[in-house]
Amino acid sequence: MRLTRSSRRRRFAPLALATTAAAALLTGPALSATAVAAPSVAGIASADTAAVEIDPALEKAVADGGEATFFVVLKAKADLAQGRAKKDKNAKAKATYGALRSEANRTQKTLTSYLDAKKVGHEDFWITNSVLVTGDEALVEDLAKRHDVAELVQEKHYAVDVPEGENAITEDATTASLEWGITAVKADQVWSQHADRGEGVVIANVDSGVQYDHPALVGSYRGNDGNGAFTHDYNFYDATGTCTDGVPCDNNGHGTHTMGTMVGADGIGVAPGATWMAAKGCEARECSDSSLLKAGQWILAPTDSNGQNPRPELAPDIVNNSWGGGHTTFYQSTVEAWTAAGIFHTFSAGNSGNGVTCSTAEAPGSQATSYAVGAFDINGKISNFSGFGPSLVDGSMVPSIAAPGVDVRSTWPGSSYNTISGTSMAAPHVAGAAALIMAAAPSLVGDIQGVQALLNDGATDVDDTHCGGTADANNVWGEGKLNVLASVEAAPKQAGTVTGTVTDQATGAPLSGVTVDIAGTSPRTVKTGSDGGYRVHLLPGTYAFTLRGYGYATRTLADVELADDQVLTQDVSLTAVPVHAVTGTVLDVVGEPLAGVRVAVTGTPVAAVTTDAGGGFTLPEVAEGDYTLTASPAEPVLCNGAYAAKLTIDGDENTTVRLPARTDRSGHSCAPTTYAWVAGKNRVALSGDEDATTVALPFPVDFYGVTYNNVAVTTNGLLNFLSPRVGDYANDALPSNAVPNGIVAAYWDDLALDKKSTVMTAPWCSTSPTDPCGGSRTATCTSASSTSTRAAPSW
Amino acid sequence: MTIEQSDPTDGVRYQVASYALADGERTTHDTRINAFPTAMTVGDLGAGGGVEYAVAESTLAPNTSINASTVRVLDGRDPAVALWSRTTKRAADNERNGASTWELSIVDGTLIASAQDDTGSNGAENLSGLQYGALTAFSGSGKVRWRLDGLAASPLDHEVVRSGRSTLVRTVDLQQNVHTYSLGNGKESALTPLRGDLAYAQDVDVDGDGRQDVVAGGTSRGVWAWSGTSLKSGEPRELWQATVPGQVHRIETGDVDGDGEAEIVVAADTATAVLDAATGEVEATIDGGGQYVRSVTVADVNGDDAAEILVPTDALRVYRGDGSALWTYAAPAGDGDVVFSDTVVADGRVHTQYGSVNGLQRGDATQQAVALDGTGTAVWAIKPDVPEIADGGRMHGALLDRAVFASPEIPYADGHAVVHTWLILSTTPGLPGTAVTPHVVIEIRDGRTGELLHQYIGGSPWSHDNYFTHDEVLYQLSFGTLHGFAADGVETYSSVIAPLRSLEVGTGPGGRELLLGGVDGGVGAWDPSVLTSGWSFQYGVGSGSQPGGRNHLVADLDGDGVDEMVSLNYDDFGVNRTATLVGGGFFGQDNAIHRMATYSLS
Fold first, then answer.
1. What residue ranges of chain B have pLDDT lower than 70?
2. ipTM greater than cut 0.95
3. Which chain B residues are closer than 8 Å to A722 by Cβ?
4. How far off is chain B from A418, nearest CA to CA, in Å?
5. Do A612 and A543 have their domain in common?
6. Domain presence at residue A111
7. What is the number of helices (H) and of strands (E) in chain A?
């Protein structure tokens, strides 16, 4: 049983200072603010006294002329009740995502337009309805006056929760025995006594990434298509921009370790039958607020590797978070959104404890809304680093539960293993335990309170009340030591089990990596293992099983009835389909054949090919079926974009692939065209090697959604809409986060003006469509008006 | 007229502005974004219409390192108009801060600019740009009239002085030499070395009073002689000052002209200089041929009763006292680029060694020990034995400083032993699995035949200090640790607690034998029992604290039979250049006030 959080929160409020105030704004008007910049009177804010809370850390950072990166949190909050009310987890996720997204779209526009007009770059987040900006005291003051803004919070960084000084020793080999944490929480007894290894449950982490092809993890990766092919879209997301080419990576090891404890094979993981996906929200040893928020959004609505095309129905059932620090409330709204979407979460309680001192737990684990995990060792003693309650954020009990977290051996990058300690290692034991519970009791998928109650009730009590609480639930152990066997035994196991083997109809050979999509009362997706076998626990009901595997005809078994406690063996054979050649020609953006283009059939083991000098390609053997054909031009891609389109193969296919124009996220695209020299007329006052000057544009020019009346021209071949910067002589690949920004890089190089050279502007001409002004060899800015109006600076 | 820079955290920009004298009204003439001003001056550059404004600015690369410095000359009538500008980009191999311009002067229609010089800032000669500066004279129209850079100018400032009808520009380089140049053509009219860091010294009787005086030099091109008794009494009396061709990296003494009086021989970076001990007059200058002249040995190699001058650079060159060449010993062409170590003369033989340039970074480094007769003919030449622990089964060249040692006290080869010191990459001896790092290999060989008699793997090459003997035991000092090599292969080990960097045997009060040495931050004295106790971290019997001190000189300056000690500074850039030659690097600086200090033993 947990302590009553609301009463504790009220009692501890004065201690929480600014972060408590933030919590009040994010969670409701339960508290009076303690750190408001300009207190409002009776809720009526004048233009100068809007009740916007300013993070004291932000105020300090921008004092004396400094700049800081901070979140502008809007007052408007999506109503998550609709999601919470849904019973089915997919419906919960869709409804919650829809509510958050539409509220953000509706309420952020005024703010973002204002920022655009001020030429302040911004990154927008729907999960917390906030906008990330960088600016100075003046910007803070301006935003603090806005009625739609609730608070301004400086961006923070969190540590992955491994104690300092941890000495990583990696090993190459696995061992035959079970890890001590597995037996300590009795996961092995769940496997043997309940034939439950977490099958059909999808589990995720927000961490430093995962080595997706680690031998102990590759089999359970949701992106594993079998046959050596992988699809990382919707299965791995790098919010930090660290990994290259959309391929999962882990530049720390921490995320691979926590994932191993959840689902690793060979006695490493609690739920080795579960399927995993992951979001990299930690840059390396630290995790930034913005990366964590992007990761949090992706967990709720997974996207492709480019962050596009969100699909909330692909959200995981469970997400583990082994990171934290400080006493902030900023991630709280993300946790609430996950909960509304039916995603069970775990957090580490933090490693700032010393085995004695109370209130050492850290956020987000120490927030009342979080399910936080403390760490104990192989002797059953609480670790000397595990964070204790009561929470400094809101006075609530921390941790919620305790799990193995000292000398935990798990997977590590380099296909190796490593033994490390931390509450980071404890939390994934609980996440894995939740997977076992959901597999045993499918009705609990999406039922957060139900899973928490089973974990709490099953936990073995430890009486240590020196930080407050009772023998049942205290601020050292929470509800006690995780005992997943007791939890599973107490679970409402109204379920049947379907097992089977998928084979080739002709040869009888087992087929691995075949996707088994189960539609019906409790939808599930599982894949066959290396022996062609699958196992899934389902609520009693009627189901349709659809089996898909490359090279085989898709087969659906409809109207499969499953009763409570029934164990249904359902072996399926699949019929191989013929293979055909796919040939074609790839044309560039202007219709000319293009060599060197990589052509691939995604999600299949078909080897990609490269177009020849005539743009031709041949994929000699592709099995019949519906696929996505992709074509990626080689560097330099120039104006050629990447192509992807559906392709149905039912015989030899010949197709012409025309690459689209390369387009950036804002919809700007480029295309080769014929240019003619425009003679310059007006000399720009530029001289020497490093110089820049601002010229007035003859008409307003739209550039990435912002209208400009002036532009700076530099001696380094740049048009800079933001400022007449000098010193930008070293060119770099675009797009880039580095300065200069807001540029048209027409001739970007280290250029200098000698006595014989000048920079001119062409006549600002206004012409009719029938008398075009002519192109410009240099930068041409075309207005959006119906008249073809062009301005051409020429270097 | 002002240049006003924004708060450094509030974006990078500055404005050229003026304030009306009458009412203080401010007018902005120009705003420069991503640039900060570093210098400004006002003067008449002859463009007409009165004065011009010259402003120097530095710009930033995206990672906020300085990428260029621009001098802009603004029209005095309309400061928004630049009449001309000159930009210096950072060196192509420099990814850190480039050069900035720190002082501007306008005189006689010429603009003088003092700027940093980041040429070769990744190398040792201008490590991190800390050794060079540049002085440039622009005409009124922006043409470069002359430019002096490298070691010839200060990176920070200059002053314009009038001398009769001449206008001169004076600047102090980073090695502490005052240069005076003609404004018109940049020609140097005077060079005055300042003391700089005095890192090297020898004792010799300069004034003929029968007592030893001290001759010292260091970072600047100056060499000074002080009366020994005056140093002892605390009132230093300068006997003479000389100017040599470059920084001083070694001072030796010897009778190189056979007149019975000692001369001073100075390894002066670009050349070797022979000075008359009595007057400091430069008697001979031996050009280094572009090589780094870091070491010199003075000894009679051919039995002609006059000492020769041995200079180890890319070859071992031996000169007579008048600077004329006697002979040269070079490595075979097949050995590639090599560098020779400090050289000793014993038993009528010249013992030296050489190894590949950049040997620590090479997989094919060569190394060779050589004994030569008085004519430069090899008595023997032997490649060292590769010890088993050497990573990759290969050696990486030869250590250079104090790496060859000979003494009849070495208890091997019947008093004819010679010690060589080589470089390897290896794990720490006795600790397999530790990181592979540079280590020294100490070899005791028979000086007569070259036969290997004993081999030992020592510590880091950058910790090696010097060899000495005591009671017929050879010792290697390696940063406070003392490794002894007694007869029959017996080895000893002990250490002192002080950061000891050099050690020799001297005489204390009452004739007491003492070990005297230089430590990081001064000098110290130890009882010889520390050599044989076998204990670690032993205390001394006396010490003198001198922040910035490291090198030392031991000499009886007042003739009372008891040694004095002189604390000297450390040749940080020079030692690093030596380490860089063999592919390593070792650099440490301090910001203490540096002094040469004399200590009595009592």
1. 8-10, 47, 49
2. no
3. none
4. 19
5. no
6. yes
7. 13, 45
